[in-house]
Amino acid sequence: MNSLTRASCQALDERDCLSSFRDEFVLDDTVIYLDGNSLGALPRTVPGRLREVVLREWGQGLIRSWNAAGWMEAPTRIGGKIARLIGADRDEVIATDSTSVNLFKLMVAALRLRPGRPVILSETGNFPTDLYLAEGVAGLFGDRQLRLVPADAIGFSIDADVALVTLTHVDFRSGRLHDMERITAEAHAAGALILWDLSHSAGAMPIELAGAAVDLAVGCGYKYLNGGPGAPAFMFVARRLQSALRQPITGWMGHAAPFEFAPDYTPAAGIARTLSGTPPVLSMAALETALDMWERVDLAAVRRKAARLGDLFIRLVEARCSGFRLASPRQASERGSQVSFHHPQGYAIMQALIRRGVIGDFRAPDLLRFGFAPLYIRYVDVWDAVEHLAAVMAGGEWDRPELKARARVT
Amino acid sequence: MNSLTRASCQALDERDCLSSFRDEFVLDDTVIYLDGNSLGALPRTVPGRLREVVLREWGQGLIRSWNAAGWMEAPTRIGGKIARLIGADRDEVIATDSTSVNLFKLMVAALRLRPGRPVILSETGNFPTDLYLAEGVAGLFGDRQLRLVPADAIGFSIDADVALVTLTHVDFRSGRLHDMERITAEAHAAGALILWDLSHSAGAMPIELAGAAVDLAVGCGYKYLNGGPGAPAFMFVARRLQSALRQPITGWMGHAAPFEFAPDYTPAAGIARTLSGTPPVLSMAALETALDMWERVDLAAVRRKAARLGDLFIRLVEARCSGFRLASPRQASERGSQVSFHHPQGYAIMQALIRRGVIGDFRAPDLLRFGFAPLYIRYVDVWDAVEHLAAVMAGGEWDRPELKARARVT
């Protein structure tokens, strides 16, 4: 490894079966973008498609486009395109609203499916918004509560009081990957339902929701799926649960007959009952266009490349930069598509990297986070990013007051 | 009136102080678009702005645009632009999610502000999705209920059991306008809160939420505001209620410090606590661009023109077409910016009109609905629309099996 050179990285890129995808994105060569786990890059097909939706479908078609341009079916059609990526059937996935709103809907629905059980169980390190929502959902009912335990105590903690176990598949700080199949089986053995948040794993690895007998899942459209800033999120509801599922935000799009304008609410058959209001068509169109690329993507290859990019990054950083402590699992099989390092000056170091065009992100108190989206990150990008990091550290480039003054961080 | 000619309509257009706004929209001259109350037309500034957001902010700026391009502040910034249109202060309005989701949030929040009172009161003819949501909200709690009464019995029905009165300002079928000030005062006199749905009035007339001492309101971005299909909706919370307001969908964007990733939820100060997840930035950008036009719009002139367009339409239809029965108030002061007529063959007639390029819509069982968006509808459009309607009726053009076969109707 110590003999690795930039030329060897170029050779790895030449042999990479995913290398051609990079050209399908708008990427500035002065930037090394290691934050696709927060916001995916722009697929080249999106601007043209959006222009068509705006000028032809909205401008010319006007209200007629709800039928003529298929806007009405967009949530189920887009859900269908996500299904293959997460090991679900097309009629088990739908795209709508935000991850937060979708978590809310499915958490309430899950509690209703397990009425005698007062507890939502999660881990203390779960993604904060997931915890906020679980806290909010528990607070809606007088007799429910959120119970938090360390990640490794989840299996042990699922008892007969637990209605729902909710976890994020890949930890947003460390990138640590949960064992979906095992924890799902443990939840089921105790009579609980499980809800996985796939925001940091969908598009980064093969996911087998059906194979693991998962009940419910949500995920994000704007990270690895490249659907654009704030892209609509998705929900998965296993077919066996759909007819009993009752989500609380009962708007017209989830009605059995939305255009009948009947006075009473009757939920649609199937996954469509999870819909609420009118979806943001322009943002939906960007997401759908971004998803079309995924039809040609081999997720096993994505997973293999993500592992190698992460391994390479860890080895190069540890060989060339001191003071960094690995925050992610060293074993690629135990992490998602990101690598994080602790460093006491993490904030200022990340600012210095960003000034050099190496874009990762920082999470308090001391975490530098680097995401490797295998569709557009090359082995040479990893090499070059570590070159920059080594230069930042060697030159003390981070040690400037304006970089250390921590303002708002995304 | 009977001596009115197309030339007189043209003369009215020439004297119209709003006439120049029409050129600010992309409108096909082969179409007469009388459905701006369902989906507003496309402002000319939107395609260019969206291209910039996609290519420059997303494509080039990537994750940095959350700060650099002001995406983080979009919900409050866009809310601020809507505030003037509804008689609110800038820090009382926010743009996010859909009308359905926002109704849900504010209904739950209202029940929490009136804990001893079990009833949500509305009218039987309220917009169906509002009723579905109220039903859903009441069903969340074991001891709450939705009480429906006829519109004219609302004031009479607000008793000490009522926590919240929720009404749509303009009836979606008839266009009938509620007396916001009177009903709000009646709700307050009985100790109840009020929540107005402004979806069919915002942008169609001046609204004075502060003047009427309204508590809560929601509204739609894609009707008169022209924000694009499925544009994000807005919420109003009177400043005096903001610090006590607790909405249930407690996602990260509504947190006091969204980037701290703290484990516990602390609501943001002010209106931002109504936010949940990440907003759909592309759809938000279209809405914001559409709103910029409104800075130059005199809403009193909009209201005057809407009244005259509606009056003209009613008189011409009644003079030239038989079999139509007015479903809207004849007095312009009692209706919004739409006019509806009953006709037993309404569905087929509307289909025949749409084939001729006159786009209105149909609502079961027999309602033809015509919206007059004063920024882009001309007096000659009203004349020409009635010409087409008269021709459809005179020629029996609607009497074809393919037009009468009612499929899905938007």
Describe the structure.
- The structure is a homodimer of 410-residue chains.
- The first copy, chain A, starts with 5 loop residues before the first helix and ends in a 6-residue tail after the last helix.
- The first copy, chain A, has helices at 6-15, 45-61, 65-68, 74-83, 99-113, 128-140, 154-157, 180-189, 239-242, 281-294, 299-320, 346-355, 379-394, 401-404; strands at residues 25-26, 32-33, 42-43, 93-96, 119-123, 145-149, 162-168, 193-197, 216-219, 233-237, 325-326, 338-342, 358-359, 361-363, 367-371.
- In chain A, helix 1 (6-15) runs antiparallel to helix 13 (379-394) and helix 4 (74-83) runs parallel beside helix 10.
- In chain A, the strands form 4 sheets. A 7-stranded mixed beta sheet of chain A has the order 4-10-9-8-7-5-6, sandwiched between helices. A 4-stranded antiparallel beta sheet of chain A has the order 11-12-15-14.
- Chain A has 14 helices and 15 strands.
- With 410 residues, chain A is of the alpha/beta class.
- Chains A and B meet through helix 2, helix 3, helix 5, helix 6 and helix 10 of A and helix 2, helix 3, helix 5, helix 6 and helix 10 of B.
Detail the topology: elements first, then pairings:
Two copies of one chain form a homodimer.
Chain A (H helix, E strand, L loop, with lengths): L5 H10 L9 E2 L5 E2 L8 E2 L1 H17 L3 H4 L5 H10 L9 E4 L2 H15 L5 E5 L4 H13 L4 E5 L4 H4 L4 E7 L11 H10 L3 E5 L18 E4 L13 E5 L1 H4 L38 H14 L4 H22 L4 E2 L11 E5 L3 H10 L2 E2 L1 E3 L3 E5 L7 H16 L6 H4 L6
Parallel strand pairs in A: 2-13, 5-6, 5-7, 7-8, 8-9
Antiparallel strand pairs in A: 1-3, 4-10, 9-10, 11-12, 12-15, 14-15
